[in-house]
Design goal:
It is a single chain. This protein is α+β, with helices and mostly antiparallel strands. The protein has 2 domains: 149 residues, Thiol Ester Dehydrase, Chain A (Roll), CATH 3.10.129.10; 150 residues, Roll (Thiol Ester Dehydrase, Chain A), CATH 3.10.129.10. The protein contains 5 helices and 11 strands. It has an 11-stranded antiparallel sheet with strand order 1-2-4-5-6-3-8-11-10-9-7. The longest helix is centred in the N-terminal third of the chain and has 15 residues. The N and C termini lie far apart (46 Å). This is Acyl-coenzyme A thioesterase PaaI-like protein.
């Protein structure tokens, strides 16, 4: 199984996809959700790739205004993809994400939502796990200056040839637009949640476990959230699944996101709605399954049975 070791990994400073004019501009979804690319990609003394940092700010706040490491979905999707390209020495023309797993290890460092200057940063470190002619996997870790880990992620990718970048020019044009603070004042704002579909919390009410899917949050179609292929960014869709799972818990204020596992089944296009199932509602652990589906343009009904992503989000009892 081809891979690379720290001693044989290529120097990122010589990789035109990581440094120099060939780099695609940082996209709107990445900018909105806190990804901050380093001017020069570097290797750590341990041989890990350090291509970017993740800035902590209002865009990390969940449905109830609590910051969560689950807001790193776009960032870790980008980090693990970049790490795979680097390790494979650009042998793959392009890759698409097939699976993303995220573990939230601890609460984020504090910040002042009202102060744009108070934005702590975590280093984004990438470790390639494997690659072959079909694709590969990479691990991401977000750490503070002391090396304390806050978020861990693994991304799996499939190599594709001749991928159509139908939205590349629009992607670049949107990336150059200025961003207002109001554009990223919460995860819900970043992911284009339809506010009227967010249920009010009901403290003390345990959710019902059910086999039937329940229609939950809806999300507007926002072209600014597309990737260069003119499809909704996979990291944005993962963030949507997190919020939809949270909304399925009436007592959500008593639980924090612990882990997210997402499989990308097909492209996400247009308006989306979340179909949720609460699978476990214990005192210390909650498990919610989420499918994101599009809407039938003729009837406006959810296109059940054709999810763009299938996710499982687990929650742990919040520390008091």
């Amino acid at each position: 199984m081809p891979t690379t070791t720290p001693a044989t990994r290529p120097d990122p400073a010589t990789d035109p996809r990581l440094n120099g004019p060939r780099r695609l501009p940082l996209g709107r979804p990445e900018q909105l959700s806190g990804l901050r690319r380093r001017e020069t990609v570097r290797l750590t003394p341990e041989g890990d790739l350090h291509p970017a940092d993740w800035e902590i700010g209002p865009w990390t706040r969940d449905l109830d205004g609590r910051p969560t490491g689950a807001a790193t979905c776009v960032a870790v999707d980008n980090l693990t993809a970049v790490t795979l390209h680097w390790a494979a020495e650009n042998a793959m023309t392009a890759v698409v994400t097939t699976q993303l797993q995220i573990n939230v290890l601890r609460p984020l460092p504090a910040f002042d939502p009202a102060d744009p200057a108070d934005r702590p940063r975590l280093a984004m470190l990438g470790v390639p796990l494997m690659h072959d002619s079909l694709g590969g996997a990479a691990r991401g870790l977000l750490v503070d200056d002391a090396g304390t880990p806050y978020v861990e992620a693994t991304g799996w990718f499939q190599a594709v040839d001749g991928i159509q970048s139908a939205g590349r020019e629009a992607f670049i044009e949107r990336a150059a637009r200025p961003i207002a603070e109001a554009d990223r004042d919460s995860m819900a704002t970043v992911t284009a949640v339809v506010a009227e579909t967010v249920p009010a919390p009901r403290p003390g009410e345990r959710p019902a476990v059910t086999e039937d899917a329940v229609e939950g949050l809806r999300f507007r179609h926002e072209p600014a959230l597309d990737n260069p292929g003119a499809m909704t960014h996979g990291g944005i869709q993962t963030m949507r699944a997190v919020l939809a799972a949270q909304a399925a818990l009436p007592d959500r204020q008593e639980y924090d996101v612990q882990a997210v596992q997402v499989v990308f089944a097909r492209p996400g296009l247009g308006e989306q709605v979340a179909l949720t199932r609460v699978r476990h509602a214990g005192r210390s652990l909650r498990i919610v399954e989420v499918e994101l589906v599009g809407m039938d343009p003729g009837t406006g009904a959810p296109l059940a049975g054709r999810p763009s992503i299938q996710a499982q989000v687990s929650f742990r009892a919040a520390q008091r």
